[in-house]
């Protein structure tokens, strides 16, 4: 069997990190594994290179490059037998379906990595291509939609040993409380709400805090403008893309995710592995695993109140984080997640 992961690129998102961890596991099991990036986005290419993974860029950056990319894909996979094509997200599925119909009949496994598909044409494409997909994977039963096949529920996963924090988290009221926003600076993640949250904390008399923004994205300039306009440079720091995510998680007191929509973010799972308190909006598949008993799940209107609660009663926030770790460590551990995927791959090749 040859496992082929197809994704938009090697960017810094959750899908890319899942592919990375899955490919490392299958490589350790001496299973042929190939990663195909549709575009030339190479943000975390160094991680694939360090792990000596077999990855290639198809170079499809415009409609004109589509057929050249397919031709390159055909050449790369020509020497592999029993290929299972795992397409991650919509654009990868388009490539996979075309490859299956016009190049080589291979089983397709599809992970949407989200439960929101706004564009009607995408929904119709997903609906009409159901017959060409063996199985769809999503993160919870709630993610099943009319345009998907009967889904296989497999959560995202991380290496819990890698993110293990070997010391007790502490917070002294005299030190700066560090909130961590870890993710892309784009509409889905709702980054432009951060200045408003900071102002609400200041209005309530809380001034000894810092929101660290670890990530890049197309709304970065707009966010910087809002920060400067409201004189919040002392309270919101844009760090840019971070290679050492683990250190950012270790250094923070609390993670915040004010997203408008999500699938099941890898960054939340990484935070839970370090027992970092979490404040997140209850969107996508998040409420299936992240609940009021193990983290803070406010609507965006009351998000600042949860931030204040974490500062005022950090022991309670840590208790929630410890409960989250216990609730989800078995489900989110990459070893368990990988075994479920491997079993599925084997089933579609029989």
From TrEMBL:
InterPro entries: Glyco_trans_1, Glyco_trans_4-like_N. It comes from the Bacteria. PANTHER family: GLYCOSYLTRANSFERASE. This is Glycosyltransferase family 4 protein. Gene3D superfamilies: Glycogen Phosphorylase B. Residues 13-161 form the Glycosyltransferase subfamily 4-like N-terminal domain. Residues 167-316 form the Glycosyl transferase family domain.
């Amino acid at each position: 069997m040859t496992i082929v992961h197809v994704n938009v690129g090697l960017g810094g998102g959750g899908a890319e990190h899942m592919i990375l961890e899955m490919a490392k596991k299958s490589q350790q099991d001496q299973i042929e594994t190939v990663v195909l990036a549709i575009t030339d986005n190479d943000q975390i290419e160094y991680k694939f290179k360090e792990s000596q993974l077999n990855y290639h860029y198809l170079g499809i950056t415009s409609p004109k490059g589509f057929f050249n990319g397919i031709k390159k894909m055909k050449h790369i996979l020509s020497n592999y037998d029993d290929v299972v094509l795992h397409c991650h997200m919509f654009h990868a599925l388009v490539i996979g379906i075309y490859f299956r119909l016009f190049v080589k009949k291979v089983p397709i496994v599809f992970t949407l990595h989200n439960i929101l598909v706004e564009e009607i044409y995408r929904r119709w494409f997903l609906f009409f291509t159901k017959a060409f997909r063996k199985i769809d994977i999503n993160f919870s039963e709630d993610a099943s939609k009319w345009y998907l096949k009967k889904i296989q529920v497999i959560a995202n996963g991380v290496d819990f040993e890698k993110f293990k924090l070997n010391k007790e988290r502490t917070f002294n009221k005299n030190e700066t409380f560090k909130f961590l926003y870890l993710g892309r600076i784009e509409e889905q993640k709702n980054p432009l709400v951060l200045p408003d949250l900071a102002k609400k904390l200041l209005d309530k008399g809380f001034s000894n805090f810092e929101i660290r923004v670890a990530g890049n994205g197309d709304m970065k300039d707009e966010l910087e403008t809002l920060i400067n306009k409201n004189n919040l440079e002392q309270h919101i720091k844009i760090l840019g893309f971070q290679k050492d995510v683990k250190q950012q998680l270790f250094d923070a007191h609390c993670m915040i995710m004010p997203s408008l929509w999500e699938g099941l973010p890898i960054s939340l799972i990484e935070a839970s592995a370090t027992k970092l308190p979490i404040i997140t909006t209850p969107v996508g598949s998040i409420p299936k695993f992240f609940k009021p008993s193990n983290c803070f799940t406010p609507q965006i209107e009351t998000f600042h109140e949860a931030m204040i609660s974490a500062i005022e009663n950090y022991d309670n926030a840590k208790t929630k984080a410890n409960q989250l770790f216990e609730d989800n460590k078995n489900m989110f551990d990459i070893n368990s997640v990988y075994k479920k995927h491997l079993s599925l791959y084997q089933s579609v090749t029989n």
